[in-house]
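Open question from group meeting: does this chain pack into something compact, or does most of it stay loose? Before anyone orders reagents, we agreed to write out a predicted structure and look at it together. Recording both the input and the output here so the notebook holds the full record.
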Amino acid sequence: MLKKIIIGSIICASSLLAGTLNIAVAANVSYAIDDLKKEFNKLYPDTKVNVTLTSSGKLTAQIRNGAPYDVFMAANMKYPNALYKEDLAVTRPLVYAQGSLAYLSAKKQDFTKGINFITNPNFKKIAIANPKTAPYGTASVEAMKNAKVYEGVKSKLIYAESISQTVTYALTAADVGFIAKSSLYSPKMKEYKEGINWYTVNSKLYTPINQGIVLLKKAEKNSEASAFYSFILSKKAKKIFEDFGYLVP
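Structure tokens returned:
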């Protein structure tokens, strides 16, 4: 009888550890998130990690409206800082990676002129993420303004809802797009070559894109959520971010 009680207790304890996490993730991390999940599940094999990918602005609005997320991985520090001030996050935002911009085009381009190449009169459309909701869109506009090319091309800009959608636009609906460099490390992007189809945007043209993570109020006492939060700040996670073109503080 005692043996059955002990076995039952072990089973109950195991089931308590086999939870489900809901993670809100900025769209630019979509290319790295599968590798991050796999590495996390090596440590916590019984934890199911559900991921919602979209722009940081949209995710912030969802969190304010009660969306049941446990951890928020944003594309900048603005949104997690706001949630922390509103007591919707229980940890002060920390930088988990720094994102960078790249140009991308389905056709061969001459990148030797730097950002000035986007003033090509033959270009009809230039894709960027929506600067109102996507930090990479904000950085794209900042880069163009600092290079004094924004006024000449702003009528050609088309706006995507997220940085991942910007990649699609850059390859289909536009002549060129400003994308997250991390997206170029997806296996699906191997056919596009540096110096031919893509090139890194001069980082001096825009404010560094510090990407912030917070543990949300809903997960304040959730040990698995805390474990995932800590994992994203770990050396193993940093190595994955570096492999996908991010800078790691």
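Observations to bring back to the group:
The mean pLDDT is 91.
DSSP finds nine helices and ten strands in the chain.
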